Amino acid sequence: xxxxxxxxxxxxxxxxxxxxxxxxxxxxxxxxxxxxxxxxxxxxxxxxxxxxxxxxxxxxxxxxxxxxxxxxxxxxxxxxxxxxxxxxxxxxxxxxxxxxxxxxxxxxxxxxxxxxxxxxxxxxxxxxxxxxxxxxxxxxxxxxxxxxxxxxxxxxxxxxxxxxxxxxxxxxxxxxxxxxxxxxxxxxxxxxxxxxxxxxxxxxxxxxxxxxxxxxxxxxxxxxxxxxxxxxxxxxxxxxxxxxxxxxxxxxxxxxxxxxxxxxxxxxxxxxxx
Length: 274
Ligand code: SF4
Ligand code: SF4
Hints:
Elements: H1 2-16, E1 20-25, H2 27-32, H3 41-44, E2 50-57, H4 60-63, H5 69-95, E3 100-103, H6 111-116, H7 124-130, E4 135-136, E5 142-143, E6 151-158, H8 178-182, E7 188-189, E8 197-198, H9 200-212, H10 220-223, H11 229-234, H12 238-250, H13 258-265
Helix pairs in contact: 1-5
């Protein structure tokens, strides 16, 4: 029954728009002990035996323009999709005779909340890691083989004991440090660690500014990451990313960046506008 249910869930998730779906038994939260116990799914909804995590991709050409209205709108689109996907899947699982509840994609009310306490109620990134979708990069995001860190995530918590997917133990992070070098707020530090020390408050304050300008979120640390088959499709922009700030400081009309600058200039508030 559970094997059959897994195939049905995979089909439903795919039909709802999920590009990646994985299954994590709750025991993995205790086994890896990477987050405090109150954040364990079984301590949030005690019936939980399996966490199903789904991902949708973010497109590189749009992310390249960040901070911009087009990336902001794409982010909003993925938010709607993720919550609807999780809702529909939870209804399906309930109708199949199991308990299930969707966990909304962000788990915080507004970015101003994260400025005061920079922690969401549940980590879909860890859930996705335990569901075998990818590994954690230096930039704190989930790195996946198909899309690198350019995915958005949501989860469904259920009491169905679905066959787990294997955890990826070999890190996908190349430790290129592009995320650290390109971060506009220098929030990522400490290259000795597998995962950066992150000034989450500083990052959240920057996001609050961007939200007030209608060009939220930042996303530079996922834009520049070389991991993922999507990067191969669109080409490596490493030099362009590294030079971006210097070139645009010297010449805001630099032809190589014209499309990105255009999307930062129209449709949102750009404080650099003269
Ligand atoms: S940009 Fe480089 S160091 Fe940062 S997460 Fe991606 S691969 Fe790792
Ligand atoms: S989201 Fe932006 S500000 Fe925050 S760590 Fe990533 S690059 Fe830096």
